Amino acid sequence: MDTDLSSQDRKDLDKFIKFFALKTVQVIVQARLGEKICTRSSSSPTGSDWFNLAIKDIPEVTHEAKKALAGQLPAVGRSMCVEISLKTSEGDSMELEIWCLEMNEKCDKEIKVSYTVYNRLSLLLKSLLAITRVTPAYRLSRKQGHEYVILYRIYFGEVQLSGLGEGFQTVRVGTVGTPVGTITLSCAYRINLAFMSTRAGEDNGAVYPSVEDSQEVCTTSFSTSPPSQCVFTVTKAHFQTPPPVVTDTLKVPVMGLAFSHQLSSSRLSYQPAALGVGSADMGYPVLFAGGLHAAHPHQLIGPGKEGGVPPIPSQPAHGTQADQERMCTPLDGVHYSAATPSSSEDTETVSNSSEGKCGSPHDLLETIFVRKVGAFVNKPINQVTMANLDIPFAMFAPKNVELEDNDPMVNPPDSPETESPLQGSLHSEGSSGSSTGNTHDDFVMIDFKPAFSKDDILPMDLGTFYREFQNPPQLSSLSIDIGAQSMAEDLDSLPEKLAVHEKNVKEFDAFVETLQ
Amino acid sequence: MNCRAEVLEVSVEGRQVEEAMLAVLHTVLLHRSTGKFHYKKEGTYSIGTVGTQDVDCDFIDFAYVRVSSEELDRALRKAVGEFKDALRGSGSDGMGQISLEFYQKKKSRWPFSDECIPWELWTIKVNVVNLANEQERQICREKVGEKLCEKIINIVEVMNRHEYLPKMPTQSEVDNVFDTSLKDVQPYLYKISYQITDSLGTSVTTTMRRLIKDTLAL
């Protein structure tokens, strides 16, 4: 099969697929950052924009994607997947979508690689831009902030859809036939957005009503958040290790094939300055610095008519993209290469040093899990850790307390198992661990302490009075049994009473005359 | 050559007409626009870069991506604005349709004028509904947002069938295939027209032709 493809075409095709995969990841991740994306059109080709589309490269995302690919390309049975998940500040997490870039065996031998395939890949990227805005996760990601954050994970290999729950829906973004197979890009997204297992199986209908249901289930509300930034977190397994190791890739040999599992997801959320992390420490502007991809895209140069003139190799890279709108201070350690045609596909700018400049992921993640103790919660003040201690009505908090250790509202459930290397997934276990704790928090018993009442003045205080007043004994005449009994007696005694009254008619008449 | 025709239908409130139409038209044009061609010697050309930007709707729970070109946006807004005004006009039952047609020009010899051959036609049928209270409007915001998501998926599905597209032209013929009047992007030649259905059910055809620099008519 490949013998029909010239070596140059094969080389070009591999490069197109590789950079298409990288751009796909960028589009998906950037669409889940939670902010509006805007890039400029440029009438003059810059020589750096793959597929003639202005898609910025977040270096860390590219780095993660390359680590996941590990030099391989999507092929039959080897798909590149981007998993988008949601994680609340309480530690509950849920997979929202899986974007899959797959290859099947259906080949199109007649298609022109350097022209038609390239243009169709460009069209597919445009479709991806459009589709990433219509799945439910887009609206969720736009509202991420204090209550929840959106995470992404890239993996290569078999597609894992089990974390999406029952009744997930799929949307196909598009396909592009190539001489070595057909590239397919699709998205499977969850429609049941409930965290708790008790709600499993419900809400398999429309997508947006499910979002409303999840608001009822989650203890936090989805609110509009400030623009998100791309921040890296360290996994639970790495909490106790000092930064700045931001991401960790573990190669887990499975069935003789090596897969790269991203253990720590880059958390796409904004950390406001109130939590002690200023934007300067976030590293987000840093992420764009030196974001130029020096694996130079082809300057697509074709003939006047449809056909195949091999493209002319690309031009040397520049330090910044022409359409870069953010701060573009090159980082130390960012390498720029003057590309030559032979080396263009291998040299890259990888701002590895930027990973160390993403602030303090450990601190950031700790602050995410701060749990405010709400009013009337049956907790002593001094056992609330890392929380805001300004509890309303603190003087009315009861003195006998439960063990703090059992309260998931103070200690978010640890989920080291979910993020261990062998699990390879960030979902499911964390939520199940917290579910039992949360059921106890549905109802909180409190002592009724009316305002301004004190125990030591009267034997019966105001609260006792209220309770008794609101629960008085029932009137005997209103009792059904007594009423029924007296009614029967009355009816039986009625004739006798009438006879007695008839005898005393004269007395009654005299009484009436005295009144007149 | 047969013209590929796609029809989309939406029911919207009056104030949602503009945003809904722009969302659909921009999504179609995103797929039907390229970077500017720069022809070089020996019949080769390079292509500019198309930027994109997110647009949030004010009256619909919806967001879409459009090409970063203010000229293109202005042209679409002008057409949609006229359509919206016509819908509001007297005699209208709130029903109409707006069409986006992509065409090629075929040079004809004198004395015949150039022929415009459509190759793709997108028609959006609009039904304007009147709502009684704020609660209905809120529901409408969400429902129309969901419907537009479905329309975007439909559009993408059509686009990725990879059916007929005009051949890439030589420098002398580029104006027969692409609209080269914009300075930053280059959509395929297109025109927008609309029809309003009045209360009697007859259609009043109002065609608005987009100015093309070299359109001549005898």
From TrEMBL, chain A:
Start-end of Polar residues biased regions: 339-355
Pfam family membership, one: ATG13
GO biological process entries: mitophagy; piecemeal microautophagy of the nucleus; protein localization to phagophore assembly site; regulation of autophagy; regulation of cell population proliferation
Region called Disordered, residue ranges: 298-358, 404-438
Annotated compartments: Cytoplasm, Cytosol; Preautophagosomal structure
Ranges where the Autophagy-related protein 13 N-terminal domain occurs: 89-195
Family that this chain belongs to: Belongs to the ATG13 family. Metazoan subfamily.
Protein name: Autophagy-related protein 13
Gene: ATG13
From TrEMBL, chain B:
Record has Protein biosynthesis as a keyword: no
One Gene Ontology term of the molecular function aspect: protein kinase binding
Keywords tagged on the record: Autophagy
Localization terms from the record: Preautophagosomal structure
GO cellular component term, pick one: Atg1/ULK1 kinase complex
Keyword Heme: no
A Pfam family it matches: ATG101
GO biological process assignments: autophagosome assembly
UniProt xrefs under PANTHER family: AUTOPHAGY-RELATED PROTEIN 101
Family under the similarity heading: Belongs to the ATG101 family.
The protein's name: Autophagy-related protein 101
